[in-house]
């Protein structure tokens, strides 16, 4: 008879079934995980760039820079792992975020120095 290890009340919700969650994530294809993470990074960057209905309420260009850079790195690293069907819209979204960042900056970065441009090369409008 196996016993379930005690769960910390701080980290676990009542009724959380971590074995089932592990099995569920094991069934998710890697491409789907990569795309989901990319979309989450894009959404967070858009919020930090003030591109949502709330506008400037959550705008934080330092945070946006980090998110856009991470998104560019993820897309660069996964280029050969995901199909162009998935990659093309993500690259378009990344470019839009990079251009929005440049537009939102009081002192725009030099071409090739903006967030993620280390991976994408200079981005022009």
Give the structure's gist in a few sentences.
By secondary structure, the chain is mainly α.
If helices are DSSP runs of H or I spanning 4 or more residues, what is the number of helices?
5
Detail the poorly predicted runs: 4-9
Radius of gyration: 19 Å
State the helical fraction.
55-70%
Describe this structure in words.
The chain is mainly alpha-helical. The chain is built from five helices and no strands. The chain has helices at residues 18-26, 30-48, 61-78, 84-104, 117-120. The model is unreliable at 4-9 (pLDDT under 50).
Any key phrases for this structure?
125 residues; 5 helices; globular
Strand and helix map with partners:
Blueprint: H1 18-26, H2 30-48, H3 61-78, H4 84-104, H5 117-120
Helix pairs in contact: 2-3, 2-4, 3-4
